[in-house]
Write a structure and sequence with these properties.
Number of helices of chain A: 3
Catalytic activity (chains A, B): (R)-methylmalonyl-CoA = (S)-methylmalonyl-CoA
Largest sheet of chain A: 9 strands, mixed
Strand content of chain A: 35-45%
Shape of chain A: globular
Distance between the termini of chain A: 13 Å
Radius of gyration of chain A: 15 Å
Oligomer: homodimer
InterPro entries (chains A, B): Glyas_Bleomycin-R_OHBP_Dase, MeMalonyl-CoA_epimerase, MMCE/EMCE_epimerase, VOC_core
Protein name (chains A, B): methylmalonyl-CoA epimerase
Family (chains A, B): Belongs to the methylmalonyl-CoA epimerase family.
Organism (chains A, B): Rhizobium metallidurans
Chain lengths: 134, 134
């Protein structure tokens, strides 16, 4: 079922400083910062030849990464996103296997404008997994 | 400088259970478990179309992932490995930029038999970065 790794998301407390480190120290190609208020983050895309890293900074009072940054004030890897061809089939496969889908179980529109679901990290050994239909 | 994402490493307390979850629940192609006593881990490769996830379980008393699992008993994303074409040039670029290379600064032979270095997570917003010469 799992397709490509679409991105690895890294939560950071200071997006400008993190962007500079990836661009200037690591020599990666980085995008301009993009505010996504409906997702509670500002994002910078780090373009690698085979996938993306997304640097996320909290935006607004209800940011979904705020609690993570409280626990990990320096930042850290927040989730990994895999592509799937059919988000509903993927959801049903997860539920049939006893894995928990976060929220109400219905796909939401993710930061790339495509249907996404998040799986409970406790069911996957501490890793928050996003599934994105592409 | 940064090339492909070679792998994302996930530390897990129970490799057999994690392998089953990736294979049976997520429907991924997984390798047989491979013990790497000189690296203090047993590894299973999760093969995605564009990169790999490596599931790591501690092996032996000096495992480099033991402290991480003490802090994160359920497991979690441990590091991300980027490919570089010249590990010495990459090391010198890191040091010139003021980033810290772990250990004595000399590349070691990594789990894939290639020269690797690890960068200090405090210099990269809580993310442990491995550079591998390919």
């Amino acid at each position: 079922m799992l397709g490509r790794v679409n991105h690895v998301a890294i939560a950071v407390p200071d997006l400008a400083a993190a962007t500079a480190a990836y661009r200037d120290t690591l020599g990666a190609v980085v995008s301009a910062a993009e505010a996504l208020p409906e997702h509670g983050v500002t994002v910078v895309f780090v373009e690698l030849p085979n996938t993306k890293v997304e640097l996320l900074e909290p935006l607004g009072p209800q940011s979904p990464i705020a609690a993570f940054l409280e626990k990990n004030p320096s930042g850290g890897m927040h989730h990994i996103c895999y592509e799937v061809s059919d988000i509903i089939a993927a959801r049903d496969q997860m539920l049939a296997a006893g894995a928990r889908v976060l929220g109400n179980g219905e796909p939401k529109t993710g930061a790339h404008g495509k249907p996404v679901l998040f799986l409970h990290p406790k069911d996957f050994f501490g890793t928050l997994i996003e599934l994105e239909q592409v």
